[in-house]
Amino acid sequence: MRTNKRFIRSKSRLLRPLTSDIQLYTAQMDRTPIVIFIGAELVGSGVIEDITEMSVAVKGERYMRGVCTFKYAG
């Protein structure tokens, strides 16, 4: 039963945007996979390695927070 709740919670986050600092930092600490978009184009995916006021690092690449949309991948 616990696994089902976890699946349901995870499924409800699928492709929901990470809009606040707390969501980004929680995804980083939990090592939750994310996807990164610029407009409608998928430009990256992976686990957050670093967060600054201006950017988010994933797989060694930095994505500008003001330009990109970050979403939960799973």
What this model shows, in words?
It is a single chain. Helices cover 30% and strands 36% of the residues. It has two helices and six strands. The chain has a three-stranded antiparallel beta sheet, with no helix packed on it. The two termini are 19 Å apart. The chain is α+β, with helices and mostly antiparallel strands. The mean pLDDT is 88.
List keywords for this structure.
globular; alpha+beta; 3-stranded antiparallel β-sheet; 74 residues
Protein topology:
Blueprint: H1 2-13, H2 21-30, E1 34-38, E2 41-46, E3 48-51, E4 55-58, E5 61-64, E6 69-72
Antiparallel strand pairs: 1-2, 1-6, 3-4, 4-5
**Major sheet description:** 3 strands, antiparallel
Order of helices and strands: HHEEEEEE
Tell me what portion of residues adopts beta-strand conformation. 35-45%
Number of strands: 6
Class of secondary structure makeup:
alpha+beta
Shape: globular
* Poorly predicted parts: none
Please tell me how large the radius of gyration is: 12 Å
Terminal CA distance: 19 Å
Number of helices: 2
Average pLDDT number: 88
Give, in spatial order, the strands making up the sheet with the most strands.
2-1-6
Oligomeric state of the chains in view = single chain
Which bin fits the share of residues in helices?
25-40%
